[in-house]
Specification:
The protein is of the alpha/beta class. It has five helices and 13 strands. Strands 1-4-5-6-7-8-9 form a seven-stranded parallel β-sheet.
């Protein structure tokens, strides 16, 4: 848990549990596995956080973006017993905006809280998609009502066409995908240098988003191009959605800055 985060597209991280298991090529050099080994922990064992960490958001009084489960997967099956309590914390802290990112998109629908309805106004749901083969995760996400649905193409390993989902959803009349993040692989494994993210792949994603006014965020180029600013065609792309709520508290207009 951290009240402040070095991750560029959020303000804080919250880890009600830690540990995960790898499910696709994007997991190969996951920073969580590397960091947990450094701490002397088994990264494949999913462990509930201590009460102070699990309940930390209840003490955060100022609004902020909160990346949820940066050291795990929110929909990991080993966390099924704890997730209802985490949902309850999210529901009771409407001044915080939770960014929930998963690779287990097929588990989202069956593990939402009973009062999810059209989605909690303060919870964004996202899926990690590293190549076109994993775009099935977007299809799963597209059927879930949410204040913001987003895609994290990090690490981006191949070209990615998001056009089928960069439209208005018939489900809730909001953008099917309301935000796209791109980034390279930030670290490799012993004997395996970071995989390269090609500029043309990023440029294509940027152009797809700009064409339909969906916010685009280029996080970093990865280990192949370490340090410096994350520039594409001479400028930073650091766009983040801004949700405008209706008087009844439901999500209305979606803009970005």
């Amino acid at each position: 848990m951290a009240e402040k985060s070095a991750i560029e597209w959020t303000d804080a991280t919250w880890n009600p549990w830690r540990g995960c298991t790898k499910v696709s090529p994007g997991c190969a050099s996951c920073y969580m596995f590397r960091d947990q080994v450094r701490y002397g922990r088994d990264p494949e064992v999913v462990v509930r956080a201590a009460p102070a960490t699990f309940n930390a958001p209840l003490k955060w009084n100022s609004p902020r973006l909160v990346f949820t489960c940066s050291w795990s997967d929110f929909f990991h099956p080993d966390a099924d017993d704890w997730r209802p309590e985490a949902w309850s914390i999210m529901s009771s802290t409407p001044h915080l905006t939770y960014q929930v990112l998963t690779k287990r998109a097929d588990r989202i629908a069956d593990h939402l809280p009973p009062n999810w309805g059209d989605g909690y106004p303060n919870v964004w749901l996202g899926v990690s998609v590293e190549n076109q083969r994993m775009s099935w995760r977007i299809a799963e996400l597209s059927g879930i009502p949410a204040a913001v649905r987003f895609v994290s193409a990090e690490p981006l390993l191949k070209p990615l066409n998001l056009t089928p989902w960069l439209t208005t959803s018939r489900l809730d009349h909001r953008p099917t995908i309301g935000w796209v993040i791109a980034g390279g692989e930030s670290g490799g494994r012993p004997g395996h240098p970071p995989r390269v993210m090609k500029p043309e792949w990023v440029r294509s994603l940027r152009d797809q988003c700009v064409g339909v006014e969906v916010p685009f965020f280029l996080k970093q180029w990865g280990g192949a191009r370490p340090g410096g600013e994350a520039l594409l065609d001479g400028r930073e792309w650091r766009e983040i959605p801004t949700v405008v709520h209706n008087p009844d508290g439901r999500v209305g207009q979606l803009t970005f800055v």
